[in-house]
Design a protein that fits this description.
single chain, 261 residues, alpha/beta, four-stranded parallel β-sheet, three-stranded parallel β-sheet, 15 strands
Length: 261
């Protein structure tokens, strides 16, 4: 098969495969992948070296990681031209998507995007969140996440719908603590060394901290409001892990402390 021709979704997968398998190296082949099913996209990938331009591509969980990587690495696919429906994608598939991130459209990842550190690196997490649409449903399992990974969550917090298993420490800035806890469920807070501003961020989201989830040494000063003192002490993990520097505290602040002793 020579000349110039276009393959689209109205051609069955078996026919696409038959034509492309017999296509000469000098032919000019355009593929419009809009509306193609998994089988059609599969045979396009099998014959990707015969394809000159590939437009309208949407990747989904039906494509395995190898197929995703091959399609995104092809010179036939233009930058920022690909859409991704992340629903039911494994982290191996998501890593392949990130590997071709330059080909993914801005806000081009939709569907249900599940992020964790099981098989995704910090760079991959940041890249995937950066390409996610605000219409996507993004869930994050933050167990074991580093400070850099938590920073990525903060930087992309408007894309995130829920965070589980988050642990924040004094290594995170006050704004970061606030944003992560705002989307968290049953988070854990290691309060040792936290400044008043960081504790204020914790107190402002105390409903998203697990019962007894405020651990290690919690140091309270007059910089904390009455409500913050009550919220923080009420969520402390155990008795005797709260240090109170009473200098400058008002009667109301001292009463709040006494109520939680």
């Amino acid at each position: 098969v020579t000349g110039t021709f276009t393959v689209a979704s109205d051609v069955a997968s078996a026919q696409i495969n038959a034509v492309l398998a017999q296509t000469a190296a000098g032919a000019t082949v355009a593929v419009n992948a809009a509306g193609m099913d998994a089988a059609q996209k599969g045979v396009v990938e099998d014959n990707i070296t015969k394809v000159d331009t590939l437009n309208g591509l949407t990747l989904a969980s039906d494509e395995d990681a190898t197929e995703i990587a091959a399609l995104l690495s092809s010179a036939a696919v233009g930058n920022t031209s690909v859409s991704v429906v992340a629903t039911d994608m494994t982290e191996t598939q998501l890593a392949a998507v990130h590997g071709g991130a330059v080909k993914i459209a801005a806000n081009g990842i939709t569907g249900d995007l599940a992020i964790s550190t099981v098989a995704l690196t910090e760079v991959e997490i940041n890249g995937l969140l950066g390409k996610a649409s605000t219409t996507a449903t993004v869930t994050v399992d933050a167990v074991g996440m580093s400070s850099d990974e938590l920073q990525d969550l903060h930087d992309n917090i408007t894309k995130i719908d829920s965070i589980t298993n988050a642990t924040v420490t004094t290594n995170e800035e006050a704004a970061e603590i606030g944003s992560i806890l705002s989307e968290a469920t049953d988070a854990t807070v290691t309060a040792t060394g936290m400044t008043a501003a960081k504790l204020t961020a914790v107190a402002g989201n105390i409903g998203n901290v697990a019962a007894g989830g405020l651990g290690t040494t919690l140091t309270l000063t007059s910089a904390q409001s009455v409500d913050e003192i009550s919220a923080l002490m009420g969520t402390a993990t155990t008795d005797n892990n709260v240090a109170v520097v009473a200098t400058g505290m008002s009667a109301l602040q001292l009463n709040a402390v006494a109520a939680e002793i």
